[in-house]
Amino acid sequence: METETILSVRDLDVKFTLRGQVLHAIRGISLDVHRGESLAIVGESGSGKSVFTKTFMGLLDSNGSVTAGEIRYNGQDLAGYTTDQQWRTIRGREIAMVMQDPMTSLNPLKTIGDQIEEAIVLHQGLKGAEAHAQVLKVLEEVGIDQPERRSKQYPHEFSGGMRQRVVIAIAVACRPKILICDEPTTALDVTIQAQILQLIKDLQKKYDLTTIYITHDLGVVANVADRIAVMYAGDIVEIGTCEEVFYDPKHPYTWALLSSLPQLGVKGEELYSIKGTPPNLFLEVKGDAFAPRNPHALKIDFVERPPYFEVSPTHKARTWLLDPRAPKVEPPEHIKHLREQGVNRHV
Amino acid sequence: MAKYIFKRLLRSLLTLFIIVTIVFSLLRLMPIEGYFQNFEKMSAVQVELGLKELGLDKPLPAQLLDFYSDLLHGDLGVSNKYRRNVPVTKIIAEKVPVSMAIGLTSLGIALAVGLPMGILMARSTRTKHKIGDKLGTAFIVLIQAVPAAVYYLVIQFYGTKYLDLPMQISSGRPVTYILPILSLALGNIAYYAMWLRRYMVDESNKDYVKLARAKGVPASAISRKHVFRNAFVPLVQFIPTSVILTLMGSLYVESLYSIPGMGGLLVNVIQRQDNTVVQGLVLFYAAISILGLLVGDILMAIVDPRITFGKKEGGR
Fold it and tell me: What positions does the domain ABC transporter occupy (chain A) (predicted)?
């Protein structure tokens, strides 16, 4: 399949100023997002995955800013956008977002219908009765029964899963090209999670959306993603198709991450966890950020930052282990057999 | 909701009954000397007659019963000292409009100035140097920290000296109202600006505001439709009480500008042991305070859909 790039990020740097100190949150990320794909960005808390996608919509907190690099979308460089007016041509209209916690992301004092209508009026140019009819249609699309009655209700009259459907309805009502789902199921009941993911998948097909999932839940990733980008300490350390990252991971951090899958745990034994803590991004990171926690670290890992080594045209990883001169290090035994162990696309 | 209001009103009546009964009984414990101007010179018979005239010769429960049966006819009795033989209701009816006119004007000004000030301060917290917020905070701290009596005097002093405004109020001349209204408004300006700013800052950090931004809603519309509206809800509860408090007048401002309002009336009649007026005022103040809270709660329920009055539906 011919891939077309819809969004292209080059050497992006994001810094935050906190009490006079500078935190280097995103350290030179480059990424191409393909039209129509589902890309999952995984990483632990604080790895910068949310911050990274927020830069696409100009939603960084006021103490943070893009200090270098570019974000190409539709021939424009979004990294150069500064005003609310410029961003409004992107927000909702081109790129929409589903946020993590549906309990707090709706205005408690406005009816569901009003909140969806706000998006429709802004982005579809409809008004009055037409807009209202569209609200009902969108509600039905996201699987909410009795849309007429429900549209007049307030968020507190909805359950968590239902609210997330409403948040998705709002995002879709904007008719975006790209949908960013920031931990869309984290705050939900396990039984609801699958339904919400299925809903997003259906809408993606129907509206020809490109979706970017941000998550730390590899189960979610396995379920929905075409490609996976693994983030660590403000950088993408490995990126590839879902198959490649799950079954042929190259970066020691990806190994460690996969080893932490509870499905791999042996009854009676403690679950695997990665030793140590992520680097302090207030300080300059030297070499490979993961080196101090990496049992396979080489000397050079502490000195020089590894470049990307291409494994296949779709798969690359930032680790010196892929250098031809590096000693042969095999990934841990248990994750080599993920496929046989039944940890497949339906984890 | 009607059922809830009815229940609240019944409970309010009970509260009023308790307050008035206690105050009424306590007043009867006061020494009888206070009832007469020249008690020392009076004979026992004269005292007896005097008490009878005041209706104080009967046992306490009988007096209470008399009071309540009169009350049901809208009669609070007559003043016996403050303004002899003038009905208490008439005294209140004459004074309330005076206090209210000044109070409501100043409250209107306070809202008209305080709310925009709160909005501007909240917006300013998002700017780099937060100058607007700092200036506003300085003003609020000043008004809250300096005792009202002090800045009332400062206003009167400079107002009369440099702006040549009159010291005494006179009903035909609007200029004479400027200084007292200003004095009364300052406190409320600070109060409303402070709370609105605080609630707006709280609201603007909430997730739904972020979602509204992500939706592409213009910043001005977010501030107006989402943040202000939601931040105003908790304030709605205070406004009826603020309005009703104006009925009580301000002791200090009214005496500074010789305003014939409610302010100081209660203190005055207590000092002179004019029991009927004291009772009447206590009843009046208690009633309007309770009403203020009730109206506040009802307004709150109207603007916040999460509040319901039924026990079964149980709020949020």
Answer: 9-258
Put simply, the answer to whether B216 touches A88 (Cβ < 8 Å) is yes
Chain-chain contact of B226 with A107 (C-beta, under 8 angstroms): yes
Say whether residue B212 is in contact with chain A using an 8 A CB cutoff: yes
Contacts of B210 in chain A (CB under 8 A): 59, 99, 105
A26 part of contact set with chain B, CB < 8 Å: no
Long-range contacts of A20-26 (CB under 8 A, 24+ apart): A21/A282, A22/A282, A23/A281, A23/A282, A24/A234, A24/A281, A24/A282, A24/A284, A24/A285, A25/A51, A25/A64, A25/A234, A25/A281, A26/A51, A26/A52, A26/A55, A26/A234, A26/A235
pLDDT in tens, B94-151: 888 888 888 899 999 999 999 999 999 998 888 878 899 999 999 999 999 999 889 9
Q: What is the pTM of this model?
A: 0.81
Q: Nearest-CA neighbor of B208 among B230, B235, B192?
A: B230
The residues with which A13 forms a beta bridge, in sequence order, are A27, A68
Interface contact flag, A119 B216, Cβ < 8 Å: yes
CA dihedral A261, A264, A265, A267 (to 10 degrees): 150
Rounded CA-CA distance A71/B1 in Å is: 55
Best mutation target among A109, A172, A182 (most B Cβ atoms within 10 Å) is A109
User: The tokens of A127 are what?
Assistant: 């008004």
**In terms of DSSP bridges, do strands A210-215 and A178-182 run parallel, antiparallel, or are they unpaired?**
parallel
pLDDT in tens, B43-72: 888 888 878 877 777 888 888 888 888 888
User: What is the DSSP track for B225-285?
Assistant: IIIIHHHHHHHHTHHHHHHHHGGG--HHHHHHTT--SSTTHHHHHHHTT-HHHHHHHHHHH
For A91, the closest of B216, B225, B233 (CB atoms) is: B216
Question: What's the pLDDT score for residue A347?
Answer: 42
CB of B206 closer than 8 Å to CB of A105:
no
Average pLDDT over residues B147-170: 86
B179-205 pLDDT per residue, tens: 889 999 999 999 999 999 999 999 998
Distance from CA of A253 to the nearest CA of B (A): 32
A 64-93 residues with CB below 8 A of B?
84, 87-88, 90-93
Tell me the DSSP string of A146-210: SHHHHTTS-GGGS-HHHHHHHHHHHHHHT--SEEEEESTTTTS-HHHHHHHHHHHHHHHHHHT-E
Kindly determine whether residue B207 and residue A108, on different chains, have CB atoms separated by under 8 Å: no
Q: Domains plus CATH for chain A?
A: 5-225 (3.40.50.300), 246-336 (no CATH)
Tokens 């009046």: give the residue.
B284
- Gap between the Cα atoms of A291 and A300, Å rounded: 9
Q: Does A175 touch chain B (CB under 8 A)?
A: no
